[in-house]
């Protein structure tokens, strides 16, 4: 039987004990992995020290979870549970998460390094609202009746896939979990969900709420493990009908390849980005600066939509860079303990990420870019990096082309609208973009011309649960959020009832 | 300012106590005329309480208050997610008070406590919850024309809407009205029936407790010719939704036409046909047919009151159907084992009895029932007429009581013609095990709801409303949202030059 670890926290933002089960959540129960020898140490990125240990699964556990999920789907979920009832459970789940918001915010701050107050307001409350939103869709999954002729009744059903695999990343663990479970459960699917092995704690705690909300056993299964082991097992499993993956483009390819080689399961991907922010000379500069900060440095730059290429019109460049630099330095001064109310900038999530980002910073320096501010570690403990700006860059540099996933922005100058649109689109990515201008025609025109799944005019990162979100090009396939997410988790059956056509 | 307290006994033994004044701006008050309306218990015919009467002046006040709320604290000032939260909270409160609401409904309307709890209150809560889910999903479209234009539609709330509801399902009709109106951001002036105002008045305190801004929902109990007429003619109400008789529905529409051409939706009467083919599952058909006409004491707009039975099964159907009708237990709504309580009022009782008399006079056979039950209260025995002809009043007109007519038929095409031969078109049912026959018949029936092998099945997410003189517009489902939104098309020129 797996154990629980109790985390005792005594901070200025949160005081209390949180117990977390260390095992696998399969068929409504906690269990040890079949081959119980793999464990992961969960590290506090603010200190580099171990928090606790969790069990890691193998493909054998994925098999057990898939069996449990299929059993639940045939007996107590899917068509056996009307949308109205699914909606009720989702609303209850949202209420429970809201009830325990402080605990979950503390877990995210501890495990991921994001400031506690941001985790609570954005990650946890975002997850609550998202689940609530999809609770409302559960009994509104409507097909069409399509007129052909009076000798026929033709209609569509939007049916669940059955058992879906979901693989989520470490940057917004709880929020990413809500984005996955919300629409999948609303539409009647059962889930095999793999959190990131670096940030599994909120998912493990979430499993308790799934039980309390009354979901039948086997509807939600949570399996921790390594990507190449558990993720791979999910992606190639012959009895999983659909997989949804959020993470790097590199790993996204592996998921799609595994599907192609196994059962051609439907794949949706939400991958990386190198999202452009474009600041025109007719923008409200003060606002543009604030939003650009948000776009780049929120979550320590660990965001798929991070506005990491900042294009500034030459007419306002000097003023922009001077003010931007001061703001970024100011942010750096708030780096510290995520549980301190003054902290706005936390550590990167892990040693591996820290090393990767520092590697990009070195490459920027060696390729001849100017470190305008930052460009080094903050402090001596934990994985903190100073918010960084590079200038004097050119399009071929690695720091301009590749996704860094850290608090590192490159700032470029431009002259004309046509030029900046072309430069902004010159990337394999296409997730998001931000456009700053007070001219309505220009704003909308540029938004329409940029090859991205989301365009934010005079704002950044204001993702709404009702508005679809996803990537163009190599930033992804499919959409999450809004009514569109229902299509992500349903398959369409067309039914033709012959009322009189005789052979 | 009036209030009401009551200790229940029988199948429910709780208490209730609530204010019964005119509810405007989140507060109770006496009506402008300072007069009262008598509330009668239909099981005994005796006075239960007196409540404040609202009149035209109160409507004017309410509209001003509602408009202010819409402009300042409601409407587009409040995001859909927040409207959803308030509606969900209201549903939770209704659930916490479910038994109390059911008891009030049974006392006021005469339906049994069991039916009120199991159907009326439960479905009311489900309706509010359903529309809470839509509140943050009010979506317009973007429509492609050319790249020099951005065109999109907004589905905006209308503003202050008037709603007039009947006495047959008081709380349920209240929920069907306020659910979609609030989900889409409108402010409401609603007139419950003066015969059955009590559950609506109880809801006022729950609406406050749920946290709706004051003035968003205003509840005015008054008479049709005062409050109802004022709402229908009001220059500052942009939309009226009425459920009731076709006769009064005409008045509402005429009033709108004569004043500000406010948008009108109507849910009116019916004389719904139930066609039972000889390949039907007979036992099921009998059970459903009984439910079709006797549910709610026949006081349902969609009641299957004309029952067409194919010749081959007619005798056996009639025998079983009669036994079923006779087995219905009529009595006190709070006594155990009772299926059917009294009709809602003396007026309704008299009306139904007069239809029964007309049936007898016009030569129809009273196969069972056809008279009062007991000596106190407005109880009528479940009644079946046979040997009817299409021209009889009991065949053509809506009786709104536990009175069904059973008609034998042979020809399929002709029975569909007969079924459609009515000014009404609210609902219809067909019983057959043959897929082609069942669906083809359903498609040919001129009714807003066609039931195949069932009757009176309603769901919060499925549209309901009438063809022909049974109504205009649809309630429930996504369709209901259209009743309470105005479409604005926004054209943004990105480059076309003059």
From TrEMBL, chain A:
<dbReference type="GO" id="GO:0019413">
    <property type="term" value="P:acetate biosynthetic process"/>
</dbReference>
<dbReference type="InterPro" id="IPR016161">
    <property type="entry name" value="Ald_DH/histidinol_DH"/>
</dbReference>
<protein>
    <submittedName>
        <fullName>Aldehyde dehydrogenase</fullName>
    </submittedName>
</protein>
<dbReference type="InterPro" id="IPR016160">
    <property type="entry name" value="Ald_DH_CS_CYS"/>
</dbReference>
<dbReference type="InterPro" id="IPR016163">
    <property type="entry name" value="Ald_DH_C"/>
</dbReference>
<dbReference type="Pfam" id="PF00171">
    <property type="entry name" value="Aldedh"/>
</dbReference>
<feature type="domain" description="Aldehyde dehydrogenase">
    <location>
        <begin position="38"/>
        <end position="493"/>
    </location>
</feature>
<dbReference type="GO" id="GO:0004030">
    <property type="term" value="F:aldehyde dehydrogenase [NAD(P)+] activity"/>
</dbReference>
<dbReference type="InterPro" id="IPR029510">
    <property type="entry name" value="Ald_DH_CS_GLU"/>
</dbReference>
<keyword id="KW-0560">Oxidoreductase</keyword>
<feature type="active site">
    <location>
        <position position="270"/>
    </location>
</feature>
<dbReference type="InterPro" id="IPR016162">
    <property type="entry name" value="Ald_DH_N"/>
</dbReference>
<dbReference type="InterPro" id="IPR015590">
    <property type="entry name" value="Aldehyde_DH_dom"/>
</dbReference>
<comment type="similarity">
    <text>Belongs to the aldehyde dehydrogenase family.</text>
</comment>
From TrEMBL, chain B:
<feature type="active site">
    <location>
        <position position="267"/>
    </location>
</feature>
<dbReference type="InterPro" id="IPR016163">
    <property type="entry name" value="Ald_DH_C"/>
</dbReference>
<dbReference type="GO" id="GO:0004030">
    <property type="term" value="F:aldehyde dehydrogenase [NAD(P)+] activity"/>
</dbReference>
<protein>
    <submittedName>
        <fullName>Aldehyde dehydrogenase domain-containing protein</fullName>
    </submittedName>
</protein>
<comment type="similarity">
    <text>Belongs to the aldehyde dehydrogenase family.</text>
</comment>
<feature type="domain" description="Aldehyde dehydrogenase">
    <location>
        <begin position="31"/>
        <end position="490"/>
    </location>
</feature>
<dbReference type="InterPro" id="IPR016161">
    <property type="entry name" value="Ald_DH/histidinol_DH"/>
</dbReference>
<dbReference type="InterPro" id="IPR016162">
    <property type="entry name" value="Ald_DH_N"/>
</dbReference>
<keyword id="KW-0560">Oxidoreductase</keyword>
<dbReference type="Pfam" id="PF00171">
    <property type="entry name" value="Aldedh"/>
</dbReference>
<dbReference type="InterPro" id="IPR016160">
    <property type="entry name" value="Ald_DH_CS_CYS"/>
</dbReference>
<dbReference type="InterPro" id="IPR015590">
    <property type="entry name" value="Aldehyde_DH_dom"/>
</dbReference>
<dbReference type="InterPro" id="IPR029510">
    <property type="entry name" value="Ald_DH_CS_GLU"/>
</dbReference>
<dbReference type="GO" id="GO:0019413">
    <property type="term" value="P:acetate biosynthetic process"/>
</dbReference>
């Amino acid at each position: 039987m797996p154990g629980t670890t109790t985390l005792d926290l005594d901070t200025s933002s949160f005081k209390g004990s949180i117990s977390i089960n260390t095992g696998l959540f399969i068929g409504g129960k906690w269990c040890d992995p079949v081959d119980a020898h793999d464990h992961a140490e969960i590290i506090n990125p603010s200190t580099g020290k171990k928090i606790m240990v969790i069990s890691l699964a193998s493909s054998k556990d994925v098999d057990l979870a898939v069996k449990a999920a299929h059993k639940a789907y045939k007996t107590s979920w899917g068509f056996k549970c009307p949308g109205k009832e699914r909606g009720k459970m989702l609303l209850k789940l949202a209420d429970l998460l809201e009830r325990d918001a402080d605990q979950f915010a503390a877990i995210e701050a501890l495990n991921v390094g994001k400031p506690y107050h941001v985790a609570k307001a954005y990650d946890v409350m975002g997850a609550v609202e998202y689940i609530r939103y999809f609770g409302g869709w559960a009994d509104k999954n409507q097909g069409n009746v399509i007129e052909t002729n009076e000798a026929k009744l033709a209609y569509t059903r939007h049916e669940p896939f059955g058992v879906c695999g979901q693989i989520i990343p470490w940057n917004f663990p709880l929020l990413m979990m809500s984005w996955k479970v919300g629409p999948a459960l609303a539409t009647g699917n059962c889930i095999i969900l793999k959190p990131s092995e670096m940030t599994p704690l909120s998912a493990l705690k979430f499993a308790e709420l799934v039980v309390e909300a009354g979901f039948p056993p086997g509807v939600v299964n949570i399996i921790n493990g390594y990507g190449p082991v558990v993720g791979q097992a999910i992606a190639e499993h012959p009895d999983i009908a659909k997989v949804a993956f959020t993470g790097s483009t590199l790993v996204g390819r592996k998921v799609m390849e595994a599907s192609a080689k196994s059962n051609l399961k439907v794949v949706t991907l939400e991958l990386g980005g190198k999202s452009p922010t474009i600041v025109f000379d007719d923008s409200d500069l003060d606002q543009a600066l604030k939003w650009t900060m948000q776009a780049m440095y929120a979550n320590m730059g660990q965001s798929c939509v991070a506005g990491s290429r900042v294009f500034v019109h030459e007419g306002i460049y000097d003023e922009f860079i001077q003010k931007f630099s001061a703001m970024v330095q100011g942010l750096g001064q708030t780096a510290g303990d995520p549980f301190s109310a003054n902290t706005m900038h936390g550590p990167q999530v892990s040693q591996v990420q820290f090393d990767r980002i520092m590697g990009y910073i070195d490459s920027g320096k060696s390729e001849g870019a100017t470190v305008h501010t930052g460009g080094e570690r903050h402090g001596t403990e934990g994985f903190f990096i100073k918010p960084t700006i590079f200038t004097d860059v050119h399009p071929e540099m690695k720091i301009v082309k590749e996704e860094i996933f850290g608090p590192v922005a490159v700032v470029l100058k431009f002259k004309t609208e046509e030029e900046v649109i072309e430069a902004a689109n010159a990337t394999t990515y296409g997730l998001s973009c931000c456009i700053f201008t007070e001219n309505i025609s220009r704003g909308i025109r540029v938004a329409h011309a940029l090859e991205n799944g989301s365009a934010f005019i005079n704002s950044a990162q204001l993702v709404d649960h009702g508005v679809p979100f996803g990537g163009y090009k190599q930033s992804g396939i499919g959409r999450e959020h809004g009514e569109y997410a229902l299509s992500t988790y349903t398959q369409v059956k067309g039914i033709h009832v012959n009322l009189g056509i005789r052979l | 300012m009036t209030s009401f307290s009551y200790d229940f006994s029988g199948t429910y033994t709780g208490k209730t106590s609530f204010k019964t004044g005119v509810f405007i701006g989140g507060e109770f008050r006496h009506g402008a005329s300072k007069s009262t309306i008598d509330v009668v218990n239909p099981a005994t015919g005796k006075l239960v309480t007196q409540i404040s009467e609202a009149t035209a002046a109160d409507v004017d006040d309410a509209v001003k208050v509602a408009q202010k709320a819409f402009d300042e604290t409601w409407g587009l000032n409040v995001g859909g997610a927040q409207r959803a939260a308030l509606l969900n909270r209201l549903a939770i409160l209704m659930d916490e008070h479910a038994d109390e609401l059911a008891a009030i409904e049974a006392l006021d309307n005469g339906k049994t406590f069991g039916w009120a709890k199991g159907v009326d209150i439960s479905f009311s809560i489900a309706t509010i919850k359903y529309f809470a889910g839509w509140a943050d999903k009010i979506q317009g479209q973007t429509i492609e024309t050319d790249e020099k234009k951005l065109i999109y539609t907004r589905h905006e709330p209308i503003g202050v809407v008037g709603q007039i509801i009947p006495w047959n399902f008081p709380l349920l009709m209240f929920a069907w009205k306020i659910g979609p109106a609030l989900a889409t951001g409108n402010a409401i002036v609603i007139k419950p029936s003066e015969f059955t105002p009590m559950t609506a008045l109880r809801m006022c305190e729950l609406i406050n407790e749920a946290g709706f801004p004051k003035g968003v929902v205003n509840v005015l109990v008054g008479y049709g010719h005062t409050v109802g007429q004022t709402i229908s003619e009001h220059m500052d109400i942009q939309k009226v939704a009425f459920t009731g008789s076709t006769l009064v529905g005409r008045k509402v529409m005429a009033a709108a036409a004569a004043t500000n051409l406010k948008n009108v939706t109507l849910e009116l009467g019916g004389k719904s046909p139930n066609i039972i083919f000889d390949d039907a599952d007979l036992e099921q058909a009998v059970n459903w047919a009984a439910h079709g006409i006797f549910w709610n004491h026949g006081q349902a707009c969609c009641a299957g009151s004309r029952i067409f039975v194919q010749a081959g099964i007619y005798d056996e159907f009639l025998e079983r159907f009669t036994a079923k009708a006779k087995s219905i237990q009529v009595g006190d709504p709070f006594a155990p084992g009772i299926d059917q309580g009294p009709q809602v009022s003396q007026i309704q009782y008299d009306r139904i009895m007069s239809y029964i008399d007309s049936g007898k006079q016009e030569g129809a056979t009273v196969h069972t029932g056809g008279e009062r039950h007991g000596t106190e209260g407005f109880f009528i025995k479940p009644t079946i007429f046979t040997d009817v002809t299409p021209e009889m009043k009991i065949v053509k007109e809506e009786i709104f009581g536990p009175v069904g007519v059973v008609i034998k038929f042979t020809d399929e095409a002709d029975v569909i013609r007969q079924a459609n031969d009515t000014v009404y078109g609210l609902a219809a049912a067909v019983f057959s095990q043959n897929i082609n026959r069942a669906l083809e018949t359903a498609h040919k029936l001129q009714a807003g709801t066609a039931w195949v092998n069932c009757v009176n099945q309603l769901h919060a997410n499925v549209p309901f409303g009438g063809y022909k003189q049974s109504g205009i517009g649809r309630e429930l489902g996504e369709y209901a949202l259209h009743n309470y939104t105005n479409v604005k098309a926004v054209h943004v020129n990105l480059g076309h030059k003059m």
